[in-house]
Design a protein that fits this description.
The chain has five helices and 16 strands. By secondary structure, it is of the alpha+beta class. The protein folds into two domains: 120 residues, no CATH class; 130 residues, no CATH class. The strands form three sheets. Strands 1, 2, 3, 4, 5, 6 and 7 form a seven-stranded antiparallel sheet that branches. Strands 8-13-14-15-16 form a five-stranded antiparallel sheet, with no helix packed on it. The chain has a four-stranded antiparallel sheet with strand order 9-10-11-12, with no helix packed on it. The longest helix is centred in the first third of the chain and has 20 residues. The termini are far apart.
Length: 327
């Protein structure tokens, strides 16, 4: 330990340095008060804007939710966040830009200010994870920046994720901000286990009247027997030729009481690649007794998922944040 005279000199010069910098010397009580104030500000930021988030559907993994990606289709898929200066966020949080993930330090006032400008999500916000046969609430704990694959040359090579601690049974099909969605069993049934039933002659005749060259398609008819859908028809063009360009290749059509509703169409493309559609399964994610539909597809070589919510009239499409494949 330095001798007493040395300690006095150190204290004196520390006082001079602090005074020269324009700062004030504070007692331990004042410092403790500042710490308590900072903690309180953190709690306020966590809990501010207690209004419900806008209803949005997002993708993610079993421990985090994708909030923003420049690769999301332009004008879609980034409902809760705008672009950030990701390099600045990483630097503020003392991360390494070369790392695959940087957990953000939301104790920093400057970082919280950036979120207030660009993102609606806060720690403590609740999302619903929707999986095959299960749904569970998760609470946002913190945020991370991850490396991402840019689509356009001007895109940032990073994406923003919200992290949570709850354990999930597996990877969700999607997430939603709609906390009115119930937890528990959503009655998911994979397409491979759905019963099939051929169309009656009367329904076939009605279908031929509505779909041009319906005889050129192989058809799989799934028996649904829900209040908003009796059957789901998946049509696939049997033979594709250059003369079929821009004609439907795959179609998804629902039928209720003899009325058909065309849901999805992928057309024959001679230059970009012909698109395809397949049914993944049916579920009731909002617990209203009407069946909802989940599809996978590809368009011009770009994979996507499509969700349709059941209504009294049939189905309405739900906007999912599919990523683009090209600029």
């Amino acid at each position: 330990m330095p001798p007493p005279n040395r300690l006095k000199k150190l204290a004196f010069w520390l006082f001079v340095a602090v005074a020269a910098s324009g700062l004030t010397v504070q007692s331990s009580d004042q410092i403790e008060s500042l710490i308590d104030k900072q903690k309180q500000e953190n709690r306020v930021w966590d809990q501010e804007d207690n209004e419900d988030l806008p209803v949005a559907f997002l993708f993610g993994d079993s421990s985090s939710i994708l909030l923003y990606s420049a690769a999301a289709n332009r004008g879609r898929g980034n409902a809760l966040s705008e672009p950030f200066e990701f390099d600045e966020l990483i630097q503020l949080s003392r991360g390494n830009p070369a790392d695959s993930e940087t957990v953000l330090n939301t104790d920093l006032v400057s970082l919280r200010e950036a979120f207030e400008q660009h993102c609606l999500v806060r720690p403590g916000d609740v999302f619903v994870a929707v999986g095959p046969s299960w749904q569970q609430y998760v609470e946002i704990k913190d945020f991370a920046v991850r490396k991402d694959r840019p689509i356009c040359a001007s895109d940032s090579p990073y994406s923003l994720w919200a992290r949570f601690e709850e354990g999930l049974p597996g990877k969700p099909l999607f997430y939603s901000t709609d906390t009115d969605l119930p937890q528990g069993d959503n009655h998911f049934v994979a397409a491979s286990t759905l019963p099939k039933q051929p169309l009656s002659d009367d329904l076939k005749e009605r279908l031929m009247d509505q779909i041009k060259f319906a005889g050129d398609y192989d058809m799989t008819t799934y028996l649904i027997n829900a209040p908003n859908c009796d059957r789901l028809l998946m049509l696939h063009r049997r033979i594709v030729s250059p003369d079929d360009a821009e004609l439907p290749n795959d179609l998804a059509v629902s039928e209720k009481s003899g009325v058909f509703q065309r849901l999805l169409v992928e057309r024959v493309q001679t230059d970009q690649g012909t698109g395809h559609i397949q049914l993944d399964g049916v579920l009731d994610y909002n617990g209203d007794g009407r069946i909802d539909l989940l599809f996978s597809g590809d368009h011009a070589g770009c994979p996507y998922q499509a969700l349709f919510e059941g209504t009294d009239q049939g189905f309405d499409p739900v906007d999912l944040p599919n990523k683009a494949c090209a600029c």
